[in-house]
Amino acid sequence: MKTIGYAAHSADAKLVPYHFERRELRLNDVAIDIRYCGVCHSDLHTVNGDWGPQPYPVVPGHEIVGVVSAVGPEVKHYKVGDRVAVGCMVDSCQECDQCHNHEEQYCRNGMTPTYGAPDRLSGEITQGGYSKHIVVREEFVLRIPDSLDLSRSAPILCAGITTFSPLRTWNVGEGTRVGVIGLGGLGHMAVKLAAAMGAEVTVISRSTKKEAEAKASGARGLLASTDQAAMQAAANTFDLIIDTVPVKHDLNLYVPLLDVDGTLVIVGQIGPMEEPMTMPLVFGRRRVAGSLIGGIAETQEVLDFCAEHQIYPECQMIKMDEINDAFEHLAQGDFAHRIVIDMASLSVD
Ligand code: NAP
Ligand code: ZN
To answer: Per the similarity annotation, which family is this (predicted)?
Structure first.
């Protein structure tokens, strides 16, 4: 199937239109007309080569929503016209303990990311959602609940699940004191989801500039990490902190904010960190942990949770050819919401 996307052809290059083919349907494949795709900071890290050399050209995009256009003969759960979604993974071994435990993101044999990785059968490089069409095996296709507006749902597929999963893992509920470092795409979803679970949420941001957006998303307040007096006053006041900062940073600033037995979960920076100080960990039995997206079943759970609670990401719609400008703002951490590409703005011809 011929399609078009926007691809980076080298590190730090601008994204440009790119014609390519999607594979012929395998027995258990679902073909999807992509309607909207969210813009994750991981897309930017990947095309910039922050995570190592990439198999260019790379078509990024892993917050994909659309409509089924065709199905392979053995597809059981989807039919033409269904509203569906694809997140950060398109395959895994399906045989190891992690896959059996519905945690395909931790597949022992390595899950297949939605873009920039070899397909398990053909070796062809996967290409993501900044495009008109995608073909994905049924097991990695999610259903958009009827009561969710497709145009506002795409960021649930990465920003949503990546923050939902640690909130669930660390049993966030009524009255849990949750801090969210960085009010961007992931951060604002963390606030909305934690607030819906009954938590008392505080945004920890570089300045007070995003205070109104923090409160609009459901936070009780905003703590500026640059305000030393406020940071000291907030020591020992959090049960869980979700850290979405996308660059190398100093955890020592944030760990003392945790109460005894509190946990700081890194979901942002993947790579080296500043040297951690052990004292605040030891004196307070505090923990630093990490978390990667979430499994397919849990991704369906967050979609259903958002439908039930009518939680929507704040989406700023752009046209496909506005992506390079959006990347520049994303690099600065300007947004307190998610950029979403309207694929109607991209034509196959
Ligand atoms: P984003 O929209 O750019 O948000 C990141 C936020 O971090 C910014 O809005 C900003 O918030 C803060 N920030 C930015 N630069 C900073 C700096 N130099 N120092 C301190 N804070 C800074 O990015 P995103 O899409 O939410 O993604 C965040 C990170 O999560 C990325 O690194 C991405 O690759 C990663 N990620 C991980 C997973 C996973 O599975 N673990 C999944 C998806 C994404 P303030 O203005 O409020 O400070
Ligand atoms: Zn992402």
So the answer is: Belongs to the zinc-containing alcohol dehydrogenase family.
